[in-house]
Amino acid sequence: MRNLIRKLQTYWLADASFVTLLIMLLAAVFVLPIIMEISGRGVLLFNILLLSVFFSGIFSTRHVGLISVSAILFSIHLALRIIRFGDNPYSFYVLENVIAIANALVFLFINLQLLFRDQSVNTYRIIGAVNVYLLLALIGALTLEVIHAATGASIGGNVVLKGVDGDYVHFIYFSLTSLTTVGFGDIYAVNAPAKMLATFLSALGILFPAIVIARLVGLAASRS
Predict the structure, then answer these.
(1) What is the pLDDT of residue 224?
(2) Which residue(s) pair with 155 in the sheet?
(3) Per-position b or e across 9-18, b if 16+ CB within 10 A of its CB
């Protein structure tokens, strides 16, 4: 068991793991929303993939505190998902998504540490920067889910929200368009929390290249 844990940690601490994470995040952000739109199995696949992403965070750091926090959040998240999808009347949907956001934030911090460790810049680190960007979009979508579940409203326009996992299709679309552009106008924020989130995502979308990419370019220039 220890050998397996060491192998997993060795892999997820290596730069090559950025490619695996990129594939997982591309699937979560771009592919699974399409599957969720056309098939009920997409929801199950999304939950499995999301948990897999967070599970990898446990092995992506050597910091004992971060390992402990990641493991605890993952365990709580997994337990809440099992409760909701199990054969029982209980569900903690808002808490479940709050834990998912916390887990994603910890995972984001871990990936930023991996991105800038040892002041190295290579192709894998560029991929790592893309991963951080996609994680921001994912966090935005999860936050919209919490806003909608807590207030009963979040986004409006050419969209019908049902208060279920399938709404992720619309939330990730709005989150990503807010992060990369000012939106296309077909979907828009309808209450103050959603409006502030959209504004925050837009600001992050502008600041990300100015801070993260510029930092990588600066490291590459200093090493050359």
Answers:
(1) 63
(2) 189
(3) beebeebebb
